Amino acid sequence: MDAQLAEVRALEAEIAALRRACEEPRAAGEDSWRAQKSLREIFFSDSEGWASSKDLRSHLGHFFSELRFLSTLTGISIRNYSFFLEDLTNTEKKEKSIMKVLQRHRLSGNCRMITFQLEFQILEIQNKESLSSVITDLNIIMEPTEYSELSDFVSRAEERRDLLMFFRSLHFFVEWCEYRKRTFEHFKEKYPAAVHLPEGAASSCMAVRSTCQPGFELVIVWRVQIDEEGKVLPKLDLLPKAPQQALKLDQNRALETAPLSFRALLGTLGIEAALESLIQSLCTADYN
Amino acid sequence: MEWANDGKSRGGVLAHLERLEIEVNRSRKNLEDLQRAQAVESALGTKIHKLRCLRDELRAEVKQRQARVKASTVNVEPDQTPEISEQEVAERRKENVKAILQAYRFTGLSGKLTSRGVCVCISTAFEGNLLDSYFIDLVIQKPLRIHHHSIPVFIPLEEISAKYLQTNIQHFLFCLCEYLNAYAGRKYQADRLQSDFAAFLAGPLRRNSLCNLLSFTYKVEPRGQSFPFCARLLYKDLTTALPTDVTVTYQGTDALSSSWEEQRASHENLFFSKPLHQVFTSFARKGEKLDMSLVS
């Protein structure tokens, strides 16, 4: 608080000096020299905003290091931020001891490929016993909007004004989507004939076909869901496809029970190993 | 409850931290100077911003005048003119970056680099209410260690750091974040119940410091004389702000009629699914209706 007050005074003093400098008549010689001198005095004074260029650059480097650290840690890169305050203190007698300030914040940035723009308001109420800070409004705009799972999540976050959960869940959601993409690409590379990505690696499905039994196909649908509490979880399902004749021959109902068995496999081996074993079991027929 | 992200390696963050150690050692003195000079955020921010804009305008104007008298003046230091604009630009960038660093608190994790490593600040919130922040000061060495912190003693910090601190700092901090936010949420609910709905409680709310075991005797109408219900809420899962075990028992002097039993059961459900203070808000609102239905 004191530092800020000092800065305000320094700024006011400087503005006054600058104003004087502007008013000085445009004459060569002594008058101009005096104006120069007062500016020089200001530039080399000690207050915080007046560090010499060299110090400023090293401070800036330090700040950028902090920024890099925080954006790596949280997964969120904030590019722009601004806010302003509105004093809502009611000057009526009975509410005099209560201070109310409305803060309006605007922030934008990205989490990998997803960019967001947020506008929110915080109402700060200070009374005799305590200070409370409440988010009273939250507006979120996100692009790209092709992740349909996100739109529900965003509405929920806006409704609950849960800013912290929004950022945390967004980070994990993006991480899961990227992991899914890497996994699909990995299998495509390893089994180029068997694995197909009909909607691309960034989508939610991967199809596995046997090259010698073209009618059979196993489609793995991998969704990334965000639950009510903001927890991000992968949800994988297996959709087997087979020709009619095969279904008739399937007396052990292997195809019907395949989705359930796949779930069990996931639980035991984890995602990558389960997918690997699924692909291999379909492909061993090819190599025999 | 495990944070569901499959424990992938975070080698990138540790390697990054090693690079930071080198940078930090190089500018140790400047860091210390800077720390002393850092201003605390306050409502004067706006005023300062406005004054700065005004000052920038005036500077530009003075610069123009300087350029005009330059040719005819003795003692002019030509270096000063470019100095101003370079400084202005650097100043503006610095302000922008500082503001963004402040904004990180809205993501739940913020912090700053220290001469030893990094000091991380964890913010907590519950239903839009911004609550306490906690800090944890980490020393970047092998092994990583905690220099000091403001985490309450009943949060299982040793357990969490034993599991994750050395292998995955991000996971460690996110896990702490989960525990602290859940604790802050439980505490907020208990505080609100005590302060806003004292009229509904017989005697004080019994609670432990972790706020995961609460018991109280209550009534549903503000005007009623007796306190017919006794509730016990247990939050076994320390990462949530809703209870895992709820027991509501009927203590009233009337015989246990079916309507009391219905109420008792519905209260149990309410406590499971809604935050504590919201349950009592709904009691306060339904007070009138319940009055009529109790005549049986």
From TrEMBL, chain A:
- Give the GO terms filed under biological process for this record: CENP-A containing chromatin assembly
- Tell me any Pfam family this protein matches: CENP-P
Q: Which PANTHER family match?
A: CENTROMERE PROTEIN P
Q: Which domain of life is it from?
A: Eukaryota
UniProt protein name: Centromere protein P
Q: Which InterPro entries match?
A: CENP-P
One annotated Gene Ontology cellular component of this protein: chromosome, centromeric region
TrEMBL record, chain B:
The organism's place on the tree of life at top rank? Eukaryota
Which InterPro entries does the annotation name?
A: CENP-O
Query: Where along the sequence do coiled-coil regions lie?
Result: 17-68
- What Pfam family is a match, any one? CENP-O
Please provide the record's keywords in A-Z order: Centromere, Chromosome, Coiled coil, Nucleus
Q: Where in the cell is it found?
A: Chromosome, Centromere; Nucleus
Which cellular component, as a GO term, is one annotated location? Mis6-Sim4 complex
Where does the protein principally reside?
nucleus
Give the family from UniProt.
Belongs to the CENP-O/MCM21 family.
Q: Which PANTHER family match?
A: CENTROMERE PROTEIN O (PTHR14582:SF1), INNER KINETOCHORE SUBUNIT MAL2 (PTHR14582)
Q: What is this protein called?
A: Centromere protein O
Q: Which gene encodes it?
A: CENPO
